[in-house]
Amino acid sequence: MKYKDSIAFPEDFFWAAATAAYQFEGAHLEDGKSLSIVDKNINPNYADTSVTSNHYHKFKEDVALMKELGMKAYRFSISWPRVLPNGRGEVNKKGVNFYKRLVNELRENGIEPLVTIYHFDLPVCLQEEYGGWSSRKIIDDFAYFCKVLFEQLGEEVKYWFTINEQSNMFLLPYLMEFNKELPLEKQKYEMNHIMTLAHAKAIHLCREMIPNAKIGPAIGLSPNYPETCRPEDVQAAREADDFRTYLFTDLYMYGKYRDNVWRYMEENGVTPTIEEGDMELLQSAKPDFLGINYYQSRVVKFAPETMENKDMSINMNGKKGETEFEVVPGIYQGSSNPYVEKTDWDWEIDAIGLRTLLNELNDRYQIPIIITENGIGAVDMLTEDEKVHDQYRIDYLKIHLEQCRLAIGDGVQLFGYCPWSYMDLLSTTSGFRKRYGFVYVNRTDDDIKDLRRIKKDSFYWYQEVIHSNGQKL
Ligand code: BG6
C-alpha cells in the first residue's frame, strides 16, 4: 500500500551520510597510529589505506562541504589503532585530538556526530597477541577503548554505534582473521558470541559514563525472499532470516539465541562457549536503537543435505554475474532475483525490501531505527568540464527514501538516514573503482592525483532533499 503526501519525514530527522576511518582518513601510519587488520589485509589489487581520501588532513574542507550539503548529522568511525596504537594502555594524544577537532568542527557547523566505535579495524598487535576476536581477552580491551572514547568525546558525542556489521564480519571471512588450523564455522560462532559480549559491555559503560547518550549496534541486513511459493522454499527463506538476521538482532535485543540456530549449532558441534554470567550480561544490555546497513535483499531456496557447504563469494571486479551464492546444506542456498535490477557488482537493487525489513524489525522489537548505510557502488566518470552525472545514484537513493517514507507511515520509528557514503572513499572490496559518494575525490587506485573534491549531480539532489525535509525526492 502507498500513502499519499500525508506522510512526511519528522522535522528533527537526521539527514546524514556515512564514512569509516580506514576507508576515508588515510594517514595510516601518521602521528603514532599503528596498523589495523584491514590496513594489512585490504584487497591488494586496489589502492591501500595509506592515503584513501586524505580526510585526516582535509577534514575542515570536508566538514565545510557537509554544511553546504545541509547535513544534519554525520556518521563516522574511530580508528582503534589511532587512539590506542598498542591496542590498550597509553592513549595516543595526537590520535584523540584528531577526533576532538573533527567533533568540534561538526558541532560548530551544526552537524550531530554519530560515532561508530568499531568498523572492522582491529589493531594488528591484538590480533597477533591473542587472536583478536577469537579470545575473550578482547572484551576488556574493547571496554577500555570504549572508556577512553566516552571520557574523551562523551561530552560532545551523544549517539554511539558499538560494532559495525557484526553480521557481515561473521559471513565474510575476509573482514576477520581466522585460524586456518581450526574449523571455520566453530570459530565464527565463538567470535560472534565474544563480539556480542563486548557490545553489551560497551552499552553498560556508556550508560554509566554518559547517561544522556544513546547507543546501539549498526547491523548489515538483507531480508530473504523464497525463490518460489514451494513450502520448502518459504521455510528456507524463514530460516535464512533466522541465521542471517535474527540470530544477531535477538541476541542484541533479548540476549537470547534463537532455538533453531542453537540446535543447528549443537547438532554440528559448533556452539560457542557460554560462561557463567554471559547470558545475564547480554539480557541486561538492550540497545537504545538499531542501526541498519541495507544495500539489497536476497533470494533463497531449499538446499538438500547432499550439497556442499559454501560461503558466499564476493564480486570484486564489477563484472556482472561473478557472485557465487552461499549454500547451507539442509537449510537454504542463495539464488538470483529476476524481478530486480542489479548493480555491476551483482548487488540486487530492491528498495521495497528496505520497507519490508524495517517493518519486520519494528514488528519484532518496537525500537527506534536509523539507516546507517544505504547506497550504490558504481564507476563514476568525471567529464572534461569537471562534472559527475550520477543519475543512477540519485535514482537508487530516491526509491529507497520513498520506501523509508512509506515505512514511517507504517509506524516504523525511523529517525535518520545515512547514505553510504558522504564522499568517495576506498571500497572495502573494490578500491576506488567502486564509488559511493556525493562528492568525487580526484584520484584512482594507481594515481593519487590532487585528491580534489568535486560535487556530483547527486550532491545537488541530496541538498534539495534535505532542504525540503524529504518532500522533494
Ligand atoms: C558495508 C561496510 O558492508 O558496505 C562498508 O560497512 C563498505 O565499510 C560498504 O564499504 C560497501 O561495501 P564495498 O565492498 O562495496 O565497499
From TrEMBL:
It comes from the Bacteria. It holds the Pfam family Glyco_hydro_1. GO terms for molecular function: hydrolase activity, acting on glycosyl bonds. Its EC number is 3.2.1.-. Gene3D superfamilies: Glycosidases. The active site is at E373 (nucleophile). SUPFAM superfamilies: (Trans)glycosidases. Keywords: Glycosidase, Hydrolase. The keyword Hydrolase applies. Belongs to the glycosyl hydrolase 1 family. This is Glycoside hydrolase family 1 protein. It comes from Bacillus salipaludis.
